[in-house]
Specification:
transmembrane, 5-stranded mixed beta sheet, Nucleotidyltransferase, domain 5, alpha/beta, 5 strands, transmembrane helix
Length: 138
């Protein structure tokens, strides 16, 4: 009988207490949940008009500076291809002609975001803060 008692007591000692490990896991979980709530994602604010079948009134179209971007990131102003470096000066020139107008960027869905950001930055350098993005079909 003493042999059985020894065997049972050895099995009792072999058990591992998981309570401290669970405490650590829960503390880590709480830590990650709390720190994840402080992470702020940066986003780009876009003025995207609603998709309507009606064209805009003629007055709003004439006041806006229309910039088109195709799938190859080529920029067109007044149906002329322009370099990204000359966009700011062209926007400033057109803004002087019509100070109430904003900038409307009609970009292809395949165009890169960096092209839109460069155009928006150029418009802001020309003191125009009303920049809208209009997606154009492929």
């Amino acid at each position: 009988m003493s042999r059985r008692k020894r065997k049972q007591s050895a099995e009792d000692k072999a058990e591992i207490d998981l309570t401290p490990m669970l405490d650590v896991v829960f503390i880590m979980l709480i830590f990650f949940i709390v720190t994840a709530s402080f992470v702020k994602e940066k986003s780009l604010g876009l003025n995207v008009p609603e998709n309507t079948d009606n064209p805009p009134p003629p007055d709003s179209e004439s006041k806006s500076i229309l910039i088109q971007v195709n799938a190859n990131d080529e920029i067109f102003i007044d149906s002329r291809r322009v370099d990204i470096r000359s966009v700011r000066s062209l926007i400033a020139q057109k803004s002087a002609e019509n100070p109430e107008g904003g900038v409307v960027v009609m970009a292809n869905e395949q165009a890169s975001t960096s092209t839109y950001v460069a155009i928006a930055d150029a418009a802001r350098e020309a003191n125009i803060y009303n920049v809208s993005l209009v997606p154009r079909a492929k």
